[in-house]
């Protein structure tokens, strides 16, 4: 073939790869949600660069080799880096170290050994921290290398990053990696799963997602860490070597990586690479290689940069920890809040020295997107992550049907549904069991909610006791609570003989339970634990219906598009998400049966009719400070009975602030906004409570 034809084919491939890489860059940098593994990305990138090496005409200004990362996302203000933040070239094989060192020496025309620092390459996201006269004035992500995102407010919430420096140069830009530890990542994901929120694929994504929050209070709740390893603008250099600069950062209070070593020869660099590789699995943070940097800053200056990376540094990447195995089954686990999570059961395989037999499948869409089917040969990856994941499907078994995600809960058989976000019309990633009253996987959680203070408020049935009775098989459903005494009477193993109970407390417990056999409707509804029905919505329903049966009659017929659904939607303050959740709950037959059993024991009574002639009817009331004559909950309930809306915070919309003793910032704010303020006695008079 002629060179012309070769060039045409290469150009087509180069363009195709460029488009794919651009899309992957976007997914990685802007959405913190990569679509392929780092190893696969690196392979695409290498091929792209190889094409340019062979056909230099492809490496024009539009080439990705001239860019770093991706343009900063629109949602953040931009910061132009005083000195660009660059990327690193990669090497993969041991021999590449020798070649890299030889290249550096050749460039410098030096035959003497050159010292390099060798340190872990942290798998997080880089950040540039600018200090002026010792004060942190701005923090920016790398962005496209020239312009980054302003994450100053978020970075101020990271404990490891000093806000003030003593004895620092007038201008000092410290650069390094923001990351999340593996343990913190696992805990965060567990919390996210519980709350039905986004699950992060790995600690890097979790760190990026946490830092790039518009609300810094979210970042503050995420455990982010930092290692300093580079710098940008510095008004007076405090050292003349890489190692000296890092030591200086440590002296200023920045965390620096303890596995940094000064190597005089390529052999020593390789030995340190091996040492770090051997520790990789036991480190509490993800690393994906080792970075070598020329130690003398004067030499760094002479070597300079090519395109997007310095000539004086390189990243030696670890081989990806991947392996191929068979997907034996897809298990569906039901979480405490009813979320259905798919888990891959694998034919055990060793990945990076660890035997893996389970892998996360994230969610239903992920399975469909990768077209994962039972029996597939799959690539699993343990890229330092706590939970192994399936990267891709190698092949399907002949005749294997596409995987169909269950539409019912494997624990109780109730319908499992995905909520639709009314704003976007998109289905939630998580499918949830609607049989909250009937599902054994959710039972303990629902029982705890049922007995909680603002629901049935059964004294003596706290979290510990519920778990205890559940394990003993004595309380499995809400209805069981109310038959406990009767069953105990007939039982040979009496509760009073269990450790920690005794005669008196058992009698008290039975009395507390009996007292709740009749309960106000809003508490009853709240206690059912229907998704999106908190105290306020429970009150709305309790007010809108004369009694529970009336509510139930409407709710069980409130499929989308019915007059009953319109009826629910017409209730003031009830939106479609809530109406949908209520309908799903009452339509589910498993819940019907559990409700019937509960109603055979408990009788809800209507809320007192709301007095619309009270002086606070229709007003928004806020309580603050400590009340002496009634609890805050009682005061709230009273206000609501009188037709007021109770709010937790002061705003221009607040009509009245009731300030108890030691009221603080809310009182100050109310005064500032000119909101009418009364004390507890004033409140009692207003509410018409007889103090006699
Ligand atoms: S030095 C001019 N050192 O790797 C050299 N980078 O692929 C600047 N990274 O953007 C980078 N650990 O996010 C350096 N010990 C380390 C690193 C490190 C992680 C990241 C950093 C950089 C990327 C380059």
Q: How many DSSP helices? A: 24
Supply the CATH class of the largest domain. Answer: Alpha Beta
CATH topology name of the largest domain, in short, is: D-amino Acid Aminotransferase, Chain A, domain 1
Query: Distance N terminus to C terminus?
Result: 105 Å
Task: Outline the biggest β-sheet.
Answer: 7 strands, antiparallel
Structural class assignment:
alpha+beta
Domain module tally: 5
Low-pLDDT segments, ≥5 res = none
Shape: globular
CATH superfamily of the largest domain: DNA ligase/mRNA capping enzyme
Give the ligands present: 2-(butylsulfanyl)adenosine
The count of DSSP E runs of length 2 or more, i.e. the number of strands, is: 26
What does the radius of gyration come to?
32 Å
How much helix, percentage-wise, in residues? Answer: 25-40%
CATH architecture of the largest domain: 2-Layer Sandwich
Strand content: 15-25%
**Average pLDDT taken over every residue:** 90
């Amino acid at each position: 073939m002629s060179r012309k034809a070769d060039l045409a084919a290469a150009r087509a491939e180069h363009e195709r790869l460029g488009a794919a890489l651009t899309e992957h860059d976007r997914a990685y940098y802007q959405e913190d949600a990569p679509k392929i593994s780092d190893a696969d990305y690196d392979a695409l990138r290498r091929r792209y660069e190889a094409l340019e090496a062979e056909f230099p005409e492809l490496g024009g200004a539009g080439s990705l080799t001239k860019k770093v990362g991706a343009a900063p996302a629109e949602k953040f203000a931009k910061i132009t880096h005083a000195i660009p933040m660059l990327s690193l070239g990669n090497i993969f094989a041991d021999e590449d170290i020798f070649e890299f060192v030889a290249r550096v020496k050749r460039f410098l025309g030096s035959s003497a050994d050159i010292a390099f620092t060798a340190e872990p390459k942290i798998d997080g996201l880089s950040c540039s921290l600018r200090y002026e006269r010792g004060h942190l004035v701005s923090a920016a992500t790398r962005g496209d290398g020239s312009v980054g995102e302003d994450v100053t407010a978020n970075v101020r919430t990271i404990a490891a990053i000093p806000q003030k420096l003593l004895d620092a140069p007038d201008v000092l830009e410290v650069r390094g990696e923001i990351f999340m530890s593996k343990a913190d990542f696992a805990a965060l994901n567990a919390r996210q799963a519980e709350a039905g929120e986004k699950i992060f694929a790995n600690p890097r994504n979790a760190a990026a997602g946490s830092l790039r929050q518009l609300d810094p209070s979210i970042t503050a709740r995420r455990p982010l860490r930092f290692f300093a390893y580079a710098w940008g603008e510095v008004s007076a250099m405090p050292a003349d070597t890489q190692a000296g600069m890092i030591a200086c950062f440590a002296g200023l209070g920045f965390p620096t990586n303890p596995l940094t070593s000064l190597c005089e020869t390529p052999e020593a660099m390789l030995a340190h690479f091996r040492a770090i590789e051997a520790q990789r699995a036991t480190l509490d943070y993800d690393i994906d290689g080792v970075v070598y940097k020329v130690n003398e800053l004067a030499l760094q200056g002479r070597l300079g940069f090519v395109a997007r990376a310095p000539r004086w540094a390189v990243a030696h990447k670890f081989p990806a920890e991947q392996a191929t195995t068979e997907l034996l089954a897809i298990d569906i686990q039901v979480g405490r809040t009813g979320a259905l999570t798919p888990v891959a059961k694998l034919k055990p395989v060793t990945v990076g020295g660890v035997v893996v037999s389970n892998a996360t499948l994230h969610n239903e869409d992920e399975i469909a997107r990768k077209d994962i089917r039972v029996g597939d040969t799959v690539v699993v990856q343990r890229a330092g992550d706590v939970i192994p994941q399936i990267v891709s499907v190698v092949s399907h078994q002949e005749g294997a049907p596409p995987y169909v995600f269950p539409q019912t809960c494997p624990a109780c058989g109730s319908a499992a549904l995905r909520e639709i976000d009314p704003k976007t019309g998109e289905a939630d990633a998580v499918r949830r069991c609607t049989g909250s009253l009937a599902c054994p996987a959710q039972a303990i959680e629902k029982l705890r909610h049922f007995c909680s203070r603002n629901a049935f408020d059964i004294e003596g049935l706290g979290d510990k006791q519920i778990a205890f009775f559940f394990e003993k098989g004595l309380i499995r459903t809400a209805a069981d609570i109310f038959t406990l005494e009767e069953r105990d009477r007939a039982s040979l193993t009496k509760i009073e003989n269990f450790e920690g109970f005794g005669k008196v407390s058992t009698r008290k417990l039975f009395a507390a339970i009996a007292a709740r056999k009749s309960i106000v409707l809003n508490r009853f509804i709240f206690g059912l634990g229907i998704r999106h029905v908190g105290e306020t919505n429970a009150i709305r329903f309790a007010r809108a219906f004369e009694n529970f049966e009336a509510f139930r009659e409407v709710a069980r017929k409130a499929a989308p598009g019915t007059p009953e659904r319109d009826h629910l939607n017409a209730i003031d303050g009830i939106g479609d998400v809530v109406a949908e959740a209520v309908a799903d709950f009452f339509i589910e037959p498993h819940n019907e049966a559990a409700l019937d059993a509960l109603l055979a024991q408990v009788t809800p009574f209507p809320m007192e009719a709301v007095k619309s002639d009270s002086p606070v009817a229709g007003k928004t009331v806020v309580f603050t400070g400590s009340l002496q004559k009634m609890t805050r909950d009682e005061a709230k309930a009273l206000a609501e009975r009188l037709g007021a809306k109770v709010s937790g915070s002061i705003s221009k919309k607040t009509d009245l602030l009731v300030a108890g003793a030691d009221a603080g910032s809310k009182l100050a704010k109310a005064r500032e906004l000119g909101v009418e303020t009364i004390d507890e006695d004033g409140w009692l008079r207003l509410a018409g409570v007889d103090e006699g």
